[in-house]
Amino acid sequence: MQITLEFIKFLGYLVFLYPIIGSIFWIIGSIIYSFTYHRKKKNIELKVKPMVSILIPCHNEEKVIDDTLKHLLNDLSYENYEVITIDDGSTDNTFELLKQWQEKNNKLKIIKVEKNQGKAHALTQGLLYSSGEFLLCIDADSFVVNDAIQTMLSYFNTKEEYLMTSNVGAVTANPIPRNRSTLLAKMQCIDYASIIGLIKRSQIMIGKIFTVSGVCVMYRKAAIIDCGYWDQTKITEDIAMSWEMQLNNWRLRYAHDVNCYMNVPTSVKELFKQRTRWAQGGIEVLFKHIKTVIKHPIDTNPLIILALNQIIAILWAIIWVLFGYLPFIFYFFFPSLMSGDVVSVFLNMEVYLCILFIVSLLQLALSLRIVKNYDKDVFKYFFFAGWYPLVYWLISPFTQIAAIPKAIKSQLKGGQGTWTSPKR
């Protein structure tokens, strides 16, 4: 009985300590990253200017595609590029709008896929039709401006090797939400600054990235081909390709100084769907590669760290629901079933939440210090800032749990093919 009580108490402590430890890791990693990378001025004078193909997969994007093409065709300072749009079975006026733009600009090419077959399939078609040695894959509601292309290309350079021959396979940009009219959207500005951005920076410092940001990432075409193109059986092509590249000894890099302006979900329902899809993609990739990583921990190091963290995150989500919420139900409705020692762990929850809130504020302060040169407007949403990391840790367990049966079902059926655009 004592062992059972101690085990339950251990699980209770794990529920509250895991997010605190995670936040501290992100903070430390980001500080090291800032001293290592932020103080280095990128030299964007390229010896050659290789052809770059911008791939834009589209599915029912009539409300956003005009704005995207306006920026990508007119606001980039790089000259040697083409834009390829892949209309993946749209049922609205997306294709008609693309044809109108093509008549005005010869940089634009259009691929028409009659049946919706998913983003991974659309990107593969774009690659096969492309002329560039590098592929800038960007969502249909997002864009980059000015010197974004040459800056991303500069990250393919290493100290030892030139960009055309280095082993850098992909460079991911810094997503910046631009639709900030709603409370939820304002809070997501803080999400991308104080959580997603810090995660990328801290993961770079251990040598591997869990995933590039599929909203805007530049790939080396040769690396994509080497990895067998995008995996059409996975719901998140970016997570799947990130792992394939790193397992095939390609490096990923993070261009913190390249902003990609994107739309974020404006309703709780759409946000939950998005985060559940991300969680599902991570679980699907874990299913595929966990045996390889465990069997060859040295050869795949430090992917083993990311894999173990993903497993812990899933277990933590389950434990959080079971031991973070259910004890209160038992305490108030079935008090006889609860031991006093166990209850004390959960009744002290306010202490852990206060600690998490303080750590979140430190995380926020660091992130604002880091991103001030890239998104000065983020300071406008300081009021929401301290609360969002706390809300993130309270809600994310439910997206993880919702993703588990989806991932299992999807892989048993052979994978996810089609896709749907978010409501706008």
Descriptive report:
The protein has 424 residues and is of the alpha/beta class. The protein folds into 2 domains: 2-32 and 293-412, no CATH class; 44-281, Spore Coat Polysaccharide Biosynthesis Protein SpsA, Chain A. The protein is 56% helix and 12% strand. It has helices spanning 2-38, 65-74, 94-104, 119-129, 148-154, 183-206, 221-226, 237-247, 268-295, 303-324, 326-333, 340-347, 349-371, 382-385, 387-412, and strands at residues 52-58, 81-88, 108-113, 134-138, 168-177, 216-220, 251-262. It has a 7-stranded mixed beta sheet with strand order 3-2-1-4-6-5-7, sandwiched between helices. Helix 1 packs across helix 6. The termini are far apart.
Notable traits:
424 residues; Spore Coat Polysaccharide Biosynthesis Protein SpsA, Chain A
Strand order of the largest sheet: 3-2-1-4-6-5-7
Major β-sheet, in short? 7 strands, mixed
CATH topology-level fold name of the largest domain: Spore Coat Polysaccharide Biosynthesis Protein SpsA, Chain A
CATH superfamily of the largest domain: Spore Coat Polysaccharide Biosynthesis Protein SpsA, Chain A
Total of helices:
15
- For the secondary structure, the number of strands is 7
Which structural class best describes the helix and strand composition? alpha/beta
The total tally of domains equals 2
Identify the CATH architecture of the largest domain.
Answer: Alpha-Beta Complex
- Give the overall average pLDDT: 83
